[in-house]
Each structure stands twice: as C-alpha cells, then as structure tokens.
Automatic annotation (TrEMBL):
Record keyword DNA-binding present: yes
UniProt cross-references to InterPro entries, sorted A to Z: CheY-like_superfamily, OmpR/PhoB-type_DNA-bd, Sig_transdc_resp-reg_C-effctor, Sig_transdc_resp-reg_receiver, WalR-like, WH-like_DNA-bd_sf
Keyword list, A-Z: DNA-binding
Identification of the protein by name: Response regulator transcription factor
KW Cell membrane (keyword) present: no
Source organism superkingdom: Bacteria
Species, as recorded: Marinobacterium aestuariivivens
Pfam families in the record: Response_reg, Trans_reg_C
Length: 245
C-alpha cells in the first residue's frame, strides 16, 4: 500500500443525515474504502461530535429533523476546518448557491453516486491537507505578555493567574494569523484562507463568528478584548494593549 493510500485510510469522516436508512449505504461504502466513519442523525448530535473530534470530511445532508441544513453548515464551518460535502434531494440552482454561501466545498444532488462521491472526497482531502497551516513548535507560545499568553500548538489561551481556555482548531488558526500579522488589518478573505477554506463572499460570516467566540473566551479569562480590533467593512487586526502606567 502506498503512502497516499495509507493517508486516506486514516481519514475521519462524519456522515450527517436525519434518515439512518439513507445514511447507511454511504457509511458502509466509505467504511469499505478504509475510512473511519461516524454518523449523526441530527444537527445537535453533529455539533457535539464536531466539538469532540477533529474530522477530515463531513458529508452533510441538508434535510435534518431539528435544524436547517444551511444553518448547520455555517456552524460547522465556524467550528471545524473539515471539508464539507453537502448532499440534497433538491437539485436546483438556488439550493446550490445557498449551500456554497453557507460554507460547503462541494454540492451533490441525490440519488448519490457513491464511487463519484468517494473520488470527490479524496480530491478534497488532498487539497485541504496541502493547504494545512503549520502549527507553532511544541512547547512554544505564539504570544506572551504579563497578562496572558497564547499557544497555537496547545490550542489554548491562559491568563496571568494560570486559568486557561481551550480553543477550537479554527479559533486557533484565526488568532494565530492575526497575531502573526500584528498591527496590520487582515481582510476577512485573507483570514478565511488561513483556515484553508474556499473563496470568501460577502455573505460569509465565518470569521465574524470566530472573532465573537474568541472575544467571549477572552472575557471569561478577564483578558482585554481590545486587542482584537474590528475594521468595519474590511476585517480585523491584532493590537497588543500597552500596559497602564
């Protein structure tokens, strides 16, 4: 078995579908290809799984019992850097456009062609891993001051008293990009590319959601959120707060 095949066989896949009978053929087919497949039958279950485990690919059926599939796609995009392949029984232009605007990488109409879906997933995995940003060296902090510090390798922030808050992968990547470009305004499009995602469009709120989550965690640790500066209509900037004299 070559190195590429081994890499694919380590891939973690989440199939989200409100109909277990519909999800079963896809899950079985992907498992037969050597992928590690998990299933979720509702939007809430999907979000719990995404929070608990880092998936490489998510196959998301838009028809769910407890939530709008497009809203769930936006939530997943804000929490995970996984590739998202949307499947839907409704194959029209508007459905496709809204899916892409919600963060989908690929749109597939039903009935699903499993071999084609698998090939598409492999190609998407290859692109995502090729664009994967490198984490900071182990044991190092990307930012440190007397008040708080941030470690990209550990995916956490900590205040001076030692209290910590863990970050999701996407929160880590956004904060890492901002700190690496401290003092420079980073457009939303540039920040989105730091996540390894598709092209940005005006309706994409992924970065805004991630910044809001970061500010919430800063507040939990009593860290001044003023270091995350909003430039309306453009993007965000990291600015270290000077200590009071």
């Amino acid at each position: 078995m070559n190195a590429q095949a081994c890499l694919y066989k380590e891939s973690k896949i989440l199939v989200v579908d409100g109909d277990p009978d519909s999800a079963k053929p896809l899950s079985q087919y992907l498992s037969a290809q050597g992928w590690m497949v998990s299933q979720a039958e509702s939007g809430q279950e999907a979000l719990v799984r995404v929070q608990e485990q880092a998936f490489d690919l998510i196959f998301l059926n838009l028809q769910l019992p407890d939530t709008d599939g497009h809203a769930l796609c936006r939530e997943i995009r804000a929490r995970s850097s996984a590739g998202v392949i949307v499947t839907s029984g409704c194959d029209d232009r508007v459905e496709r456009i809204v899916s892409y605007e919600s963060g989908a990488d690929v749109f597939f109409p039903k009935p699903l062609q499993l071999r084609e879906l698998h090939a598409c997933g492999k190609n998407l995995l290859a692109r995502i891993r090729h664009r994967q940003p490198q984490a900071a060296p182990a044991g190092t902090a990307l930012f440190a001051s007397q008040d708080w510090h941030f470690s990209a390798e550990s995916q956490m922030i900590a205040c001076g008293t030692g209290t910590q808050a863990s970050l999701t992968r996407n929160e880590t990547l956004v904060l890492q990009a901002l700190i690496s470009n401290a003092g420079r305004v980073m457009p939303r499009e540039e920040l989105l590319k730091a996540l390894g995602n598709r092209e940005w469009n005006y309706s994409d709120r992924t970065i805004d959601v991630l910044i809001a989550r970061l500010r919430g965690k800063f507040k939990q640790l009593a860290i001044d959120t003023g270091c995350l500066v909003t430039h309306y209509g453009i993007g965000y900037m990291f600015m270290e707060i000077a200590p009071a004299i």
